[in-house]
Design brief:
alpha+beta, seven-stranded mixed sheet
């Protein structure tokens, strides 16, 4: 790739689309010192409250970009979803895993998309790495022999075009993605005919911190209370009631909402009728362009996973692309993005479809059977946990990609984020603050001799922090070779018990790349180096953030 003579770096990354996924991706890249050019065809951020739910995994990703507190200020820390039967009686409350929160944040959180986009944009605008241009459309892009991409942009107001050079093109531009269209990438799946009426209201009396799915086959309905008196209502429409893409009359809105509250026309913030798609892009990478969010996959809204799936895309891709941009990784590591993310995205699309068919059925017979089955499942403790902790949701487990070593129960899975105690003050901290922003090698109840083997095996091969986990009731010691931590509340020991006496390689996105014995360290290091494609250019600033299996301060332990 061509390196700019003045800056000594490649051109910026182009992010097409300034919705939540595009702004999240741009923020993650900027946090890793990658310059980004963000273009958005609309003149401002969206004023439509489309997505309304952020889960704990997304909040963990926002925290990686330094945005957790910003986002938490505009959400309602939620308590999941209550499902009601055909007679409006509670079937079960899917509140998520029992506290302490496995990822360090509330399980499901309501928000208003305009507020989220405004908050993300305000934070991104303060970063010198970011250039954000609204009212700017992508016209074309063409890859060049030197490894750059020539892009033509157009100002939507004046029609004036501009040519820019970028290193990569990221399509975060929604279901009608220009990047996907220019790349000639199709989508496979199903377009559904059912029309739903969405009404966002203000001045609402609901104060519940959970969503409500009412499974009455005569009128399947979703109610999601928000912050400051906002509330989302969704009603399945029957033939002749509403037309897709058209705004229904206020009389229709009042008739449907009146079952839940009285309403005046000025209390309707947004109202639209829509049908949904369940489709996935046939490929997520075409040369130097990649797709994220709705550009890569669209799903029914019933599981509240559309936006969250896009944020997962960003979390998986950002650290890989940053490593490539900085010259630490080879470009082939970007192929693992689709390898790792697509299976889970497909599973989530299918899960959202199934959930809609079951919860929002219009068949009285199916609704009766559903209610009977759910009540039967609730008769056992295991069944109640299955429902209340939402264990029916697809879990992301990477079996291919940036994964090394022998199979293990933790390999390819996201590492939870419990509270840990860090000397000398033993202040409780979230685990991610210790793991830093890169790779981490974690030893679980291991001794000094084992650490010596691991340091020798990884020396010069993987930039990482070293974290020594002390299980049980012992106090961790401050040593210069690594960061020592202990369990704060039992969650750390529960998470790492299967790896006692072994080591983990934890990726920057907090997924476990390998679990191995000390004697296997050199082999694991070699395998990961091959998967990452080898370093081609080490960024000068990187050494201040981590060292190879050695002590870390910046990006690691809090002082």
């Amino acid at each position: 790739m061509t390196i700019d003579a003045a800056t000594g770096t490649p051109p910026p990354v182009l992010v097409v689309g300034a919705g939540p996924v595009g702004l999240t991706m741009a923020s993650l890249l900027a946090a890793r010192d990658v310059p980004v050019l963000v273009v958005e065809r609309n003149g401002t951020t969206s004023d439509e409250a489309k997505a309304i739910s952020i889960d704990d995994e997304s909040l963990r990703t926002f925290a990686a970009a330094g945005l957790a507190e910003t986002v938490l200020r505009i959400v309602v820390p939620g308590t999941g979803t209550k499902y009601f039967d055909r007679r409006n009686r509670v079937l079960f409350h899917a509140a998520g895993p029992m506290p302490p929160h496995p990822r360090g944040f509330p399980f499901k959180n309501q928000f208003a998309q305009p507020e989220l986009e405004a908050a993300l944009l305000a934070e991104l605008g303060q970063r010198p790495e970011a250039d954000v241009r609204f009212g700017t459309d992508l016209v074309s892009y063409a890859e060049q022999p030197d490894g750059t991409v020539s892009v033509t942009l157009r100002e939507t107001g004046t029609g004036r075009t501009t040519a820019v050079s970028v290193s990569w093109v990221l399509g975060c531009d929604g279901g009608r993605s220009t990047v996907r269209e220019l790349g000639g990438i199709g989508m496979t799946g199903t377009s559904h005919d059912e029309v739903w009426l969405v009404v966002d209201t203000v001045g609402d009396h609901h104060r519940e911190r959970y969503g409500m799915h009412h499974g009455d086959p005569r009128r399947p309905t979703v109610v999601v209370p928000g912050r400051d008196g906002r509330c989302r209502y969704e009603f399945l429409q029957f033939p002749g009631e509403s037309t897709r893409g058209e705004r229904p009359s206020f009389d229709t809105v009042r008739r449907l909402v009146s079952r839940h509250r009285s309403i005046t026309e000025d209390q309707v913030e947004r109202c639209t009728a829509y049908a949904f798609n369940a489709v996935v892009a046939d490929t997520w990478r075409a040369g130097r362009s990649l797709l994220l969010g709705d550009a890569a996959h669209m799903m029914p809204p019933f599981a509240g996973q559309g936006l969250n799936s896009g944020v997962r895309d960003a979390a998986n891709l950002a650290w890989k692309l940053a490593g490539v941009w900085h010259g630490e990784f080879g470009e082939r590591v970007l192929d693992t993005y689709e390898t790792e993310r697509k299976p889970h995205a497909v599973a989530t699309v299918r899960y959202s479809e199934r959930l809609g068919r079951i919860v929002m059925t219009t068949s009285r017979a199916c609704a009766t059977l559903r209610d009977l089955v759910v009540r039967a499942v609730r008769l056992t403790g295991r069944g109640r946990r299955y429902l209340s902790e939402m264990r029916f949701r697809p879990v992301a487990v990477h079996t291919d990609g940036v994964i090394a070593g022998r199979p293990h129960a933790l390999t390819g899975r996201e590492l939870p984020q419990p509270l840990v105690l860090v000397p000398p003050g033993l202040r409780p901290q979230r685990a991610d603050t210790v793991l830093g922003d890169g790779f981490a090698i974690v030893g679980v109840d291991v001794d000094a001799a084992q650490w010596s083997q691991v340091r020798a095996g990884f020396e010069g091969r993987l930039r990482s922090v070293a974290v020594d986990v002390v299980l049980g009731d012992r106090i961790p010691r401050s040593v210069p070779e690594h960061i020592s931590v202990a369990d704060a509340d039992g969650a750390l020991e529960a998470a790492l018990a299967p790896a006692r006496g072994a080591f983990l390689v934890v990726r920057p996105d907090r997924y476990v790349a390998a679990v191995f014995a000390a004697g296997e360290a050199a082999g694991i290091a070699h395998q990961l180096a091959e998967l990452l494609g080898g370093a081609t250019r080490v960024p000068p600033a990187a050494a201040t953030k981590s060292t190879a299996a050695g002590p870390v301060r910046a990006g690691g332990q809090e002082e």
